[in-house]
Amino acid sequence: CNSAWARAREISTEVAVQRQRWRERLVALREENAREMHAAELVYERDVEVHSRRVHAEELLTEIEAVVEQEKEAADSLDEETTKLKKIQRHFGERDPTARAMEEAVKEQQSAHESLCRRRDALVSSIEGLSTQAAATKWEVGGAAPAR
């Protein structure tokens, strides 16, 4: 009877030790998985951030193309109107009502052109800011570059 109890105690102890080892192994695996998940989340977040910046840059480039086209058209129109104004001023004089009206129109066009130039410069600055931001981004996760 004592040997049966001793054997039962021995088996019970072995089971408890085995369960403790399994528990420790599972805890270690859980911690390892948590580290891997954290690294994967960092890579994912970086990829989302890069994609977001890329989409924003594409939007800015599309907008800057439109603004540059408008600015060129405004510059050409301003040049034409300035040439017409000079001809009218030479022909009729600077005090002529037509010359004065045209001079006001040229000033408005010049103001619109300058506004487009400022908008273009602001867009270029925004794009440069995205480039600077991308260069400053840390691409490493956990001290090593992520594997792809």
The arrangement of helices and strands along the chain is HH
Mean pLDDT: 88
Please bin the fraction of helical residues: over 70%
Task: Give the number of helices.
Answer: 2
Return Rg in Å: 37 Å
Give the percentage of residues in beta strands: under 5%
Which structural category do the helix and sheet elements fall into?
mainly alpha
- Could you give a short account of the major beta sheet? none
Uncertain stretches: 138-146
Gross geometry: rod-shaped
What's a quick, concise take on this entry?
The chain is built from two helices and no strands. By secondary structure, it is an all-alpha fold.
Blueprint (SSEs and pairs):
Blueprint (H helix, E strand, L loop, with lengths): L1 H91 L4 H40 L12
